[in-house]
Amino acid sequence: MSASGGTKAIVAALAANLAIAVAKFVAFLFSGSSSMLAESVHSLADSGNQGLLLVGGKRAQRQATPQHPFGYGRERYIYAFLVSIVLFSVGGMFALYEGYEKIKHPHELTHWYWPVGVLVFAIIAECFSFRTAIKESNVLRGNRSWKEFVRHSKAPELPVVLLEDLGALVGLILALGGVGMALATGESVWDGIGTLCIGVLLILIALVLAVETKSLLLGEAAGPEETRKIEAAAVDGDTVTRIIHMRTLHIGPEELLVAAKIAVRHDDTATQIATAIDAAESRIREAVPIARVIYLEPDIYSEAEAAKGPDPQATPGGPAQPDTAH
């Protein structure tokens, strides 16, 4: 996995969650707090999720094969999608069930200092993990807001870890609030209410991750900045006079496919056109290094064809961009 895959953030989160899961489960055994049981399962699910991200990153590094000629970069998207499923089922649904059972059949909390102490420890540990994820993300985020970074990042690992750590911190606060209210009022039903809130939180985060990862699995184009760089690099104003139309597709977080129809002069020789295409590919790769696979098709630009607008039949399965060649 590349540096942009956030390996350091994933390992930090994995170490923190494993330690926290053990501590929470011990606290549950001594206190009987359903919030602690839900939180221990949550941390265990998060640990499994980070393991999935590491496995996905490793498998994505495999070399291309005849059956998979564009490589295995999308494995990172698949494993990130699995994370959302685990978070929804193991974390969220279990917490909802446990919260319902605790409200329906409340049990008095014993040894309250165990859950309180573990929750305080867990909050401190999660803060360090969250800080690492923020620091790693800031390297790639640039001037984008956090919402834009999560929605438009092509590498899924850091957004997943960020949302997991944020959910973990909020969940710990909810668990601490549930335990605190149960101790203050003597009504252990508050512990169950805190557990239900944790379940709702985890399901919401899982749904956000599923929606964003689904978009990556379907195939996203290059970002606006990268698209501008590719267009500027492809045209030299001499042999390549303009881009007639272009498609881009991420075949992995750091791998971009570029397919474009470029306009050349009608009196250029085949040798001149072939040389111009090679030069254009070199300029594109220099401007956007992740453009690994490039297909450029030469054609003659036609004002009359351009005036007709886009051809809806040009791209099966979706709306077409203008194809102004004849």
UniProtKB/TrEMBL annotation:
Keywords: Membrane, Transmembrane, Transmembrane helix, Transport. The chain crosses the membrane at residues 6-30, 77-97, 112-134, 161-183, 189-211. It is a multi-pass membrane protein. GO terms for biological process: zinc ion transport. Signal peptide: none annotated. Residues 11-218 form the Cation efflux protein transmembrane domain. Gene3D superfamilies: Cation efflux protein transmembrane domain. Residues 305-326 are annotated as: Disordered. The keyword Transport applies. NCBIfam families: CDF. This is Transporter.
